[in-house]
Structure prediction request, 67 residues.
Amino acid sequence: MSERSPPTCYICGTSCESYITDTYYCICDIAICHDCVNSAKKNDKIWVCPHCKEENDLEESKLFRST
Prediction:
């Protein structure tokens, strides 16, 4: 099985490898880094995907969520 490269932020284009636990994902298969998600926030709980305009819950759209 081949290794997959870490996600790249849709907005700034940087690799999210060093902060994968603070990376946000949308159902349309894009990633947003922890710095850029602030520019996509609608409010304190929701961010809007710049690609498909889907509204995403900040906590639920993280790859690794707190339990």
In short: The beta strands are 24-25, 31-32, 46-48, 55-57. The two ends are 30 Å apart (CA to CA).
